[in-house]
Amino acid sequence: MARKPQRDGDHHAAIYAHPxxxxxxxxxxxxxxxxxxxxxxxxxxxxxxxxxxxIENRLGVYIAARGDRVSIEGTEDDVSRxxxxxxxxxxxxxxxxxxxxxxxxxxxxxxxxPMLDGIVTGDVKGPPVMIRTRKKTITPRSAMQGDYMRQxxxxxxxxxxxxxxxxxxxxxxxxxxxxxxxxxxARLILSRPAVEAGEKx
Length: 201
Known about the structure:
This protein is an alpha+beta fold. Helices cover 39% and strands 17% of the residues. The chain has 7 helices and 9 strands, in the order βββααββααββββααα. It has helices at 41-45, 50-59, 76-94, 101-110, 143-154, 168-182, 194-200, and strands at 6-7, 13-17, 28-35, 62-66, 69-75, 115-116, 119-120, 131-132, 137-138. The longest helix has 19 residues, at 76-94. The radius of gyration is 19 Å and the shape is elongated. The N and C termini lie far apart (47 Å).
């Protein structure tokens, strides 16, 4: 029998551990995740389950959706990462955020790092860093993002390299908008794709 669903913090998803789940990270594992808000399932799974396929291909797991439940099979580490990505994706959709393939890739990349309330718990040096605009307050999702945000606040020119969807352009534009609001700069000149990021801030 499946275990009684356990709530993980404020997540709106119930996690069911399948009896076949093993502790050896090299062994096969299977879990089920149940989502309460069925109205978001279409956006969560993607058109023709495109989001699930993307997670499958990136993490090497098998995902099957049945109603409001998602079954994930693979190695224990990969299954755990896929579950975390789905739960985080669901949270962002609940918050009204638009999630595309690049944003999902970013969630997959960041699933490797230990997180607490959206901020990495280890290897974060210095005081908390954030960027404020009129629409939102932005905090780092990883130690690398935290370092990047500090550099944006203290340097005139920054060169950033990394996978698509990890926030490089978004954070740079957010910092520029914040400086415009505070009067640190008098005017911004944006080019695509920075224009699209600026419209969201």
